[in-house]
């Protein structure tokens, strides 16, 4: 890392890294101090809605043309305009580089920036276009990536089908909490409410996309790390079936070979069609030819039925839902039923949410590589990691659903956990057939975004990683007046983030939908169908 060796104290290496990152933002793109001082500091302690305040627009950094590019086009619109020559990759890339730079100065969502390289890449792509050539289906489109993806010449290359990679985004320490805070790059703030977290571990992606600093981002998800930032930041986020999107060679802090629940790369975007564009481009490029960890399955064209059979995952008593989450889930089911879809309530016994999560948590704990890596550096854990440990310890005091594993060695524990995982997957197969389900509806979390370091566990996303089911978060509603008078108190044996209406008012809410393994195309097509229904576009 820079001029300091690996043996230098972590604090010195962090200071050097932060200075180097700050210096990569061109002086002309630096937000005026008098504008920043118009907000109460620190932003993390003062509720500020940077989106409603139009902070990026008012910063004065982007031209009117650049504001139009970043605010008036979705992914499909950008690609169409790039293909027709209405927009050049150079001007689109410059616009998003500048907007990402402003977002970084507001909410600290970036780690690495490749602004000069991105602009050179964009000019190269424009020259190709002038010759009637294309570098791929994402030709000229700026795409942001999570920090753990490798990029040539930056710490932590992917050439993504003609895309322009211009920034990498922030993650939590060890990438195992639903926050985006670490000792190197600091804390990412939620642009809808800066006193709340953006979710994690792909929290930098969620915050950047919410501020329209990226049209399309790529995160990873091993327990909800794409879907939680999506719900916290009001975007769409898709967890694919394992091994469909390439992520071989990704930088991890786990022990090599300890892959029992697979991490999946997945997109975040402000519209579901952007996710579809990403999938078509990736799957049809046959990434298995370049990455041995990927299944060689091209994109499949699918259609949906006019009316769907939709199973509804119930609120689990161990993991109670905040009032707005319960409300928007019920409202989504009501709207879908009113449009003729069949709503099938599922039972606690069928869904086995606590059982699935206990298997996942115990499986994750088999690998202590991340903790050892942190301890070796002498680096203290960030607050969200400490909080998560306390929540899990509290859950261990409850009556476990797993047999006693204290007398088993690691291989014995793994065998038991794999056996239980197989049993739950089999019971879900039977449940799906018994109810003849097309798709299921579930909360994506117990809460909307919550105060920094308070998210805790992610039971409503992690169980789908255990099952390896594709799932998508759909933004739907916000914490509002209907929730103001609702009370929320934890009973013995329950865990949840704190409920504070005044602090959470205005935070985005979402629902989650999922299908069975490798039906990613069906999941996305039904996501679009459900989204149209909820948004009144039918």
UniProtKB/TrEMBL annotation:
<feature type="domain" description="Amidase">
    <location>
        <begin position="161"/>
        <end position="524"/>
    </location>
</feature>
<feature type="binding site">
    <location>
        <position position="175"/>
    </location>
    <ligand>
        <name>substrate</name>
    </ligand>
</feature>
<feature type="active site" description="Charge relay system">
    <location>
        <position position="201"/>
    </location>
</feature>
<feature type="binding site">
    <location>
        <begin position="222"/>
        <end position="225"/>
    </location>
    <ligand>
        <name>substrate</name>
    </ligand>
</feature>
<dbReference type="GO" id="GO:0004040">
    <property type="term" value="F:amidase activity"/>
</dbReference>
<dbReference type="InterPro" id="IPR020556">
    <property type="entry name" value="Amidase_CS"/>
</dbReference>
<protein>
    <recommendedName>
        <fullName>amidase</fullName>
        <ecNumber>3.5.1.4</ecNumber>
    </recommendedName>
</protein>
<feature type="active site" description="Charge relay system">
    <location>
        <position position="146"/>
    </location>
</feature>
<keyword id="KW-0378">Hydrolase</keyword>
<feature type="domain" description="Amidase">
    <location>
        <begin position="91"/>
        <end position="160"/>
    </location>
</feature>
<feature type="binding site">
    <location>
        <position position="201"/>
    </location>
    <ligand>
        <name>substrate</name>
    </ligand>
</feature>
<dbReference type="InterPro" id="IPR036928">
    <property type="entry name" value="AS_sf"/>
</dbReference>
<dbReference type="Pfam" id="PF01425">
    <property type="entry name" value="Amidase"/>
</dbReference>
<dbReference type="InterPro" id="IPR023631">
    <property type="entry name" value="Amidase_dom"/>
</dbReference>
<feature type="active site" description="Acyl-ester intermediate">
    <location>
        <position position="225"/>
    </location>
</feature>
<comment type="similarity">
    <text>Belongs to the amidase family.</text>
</comment>
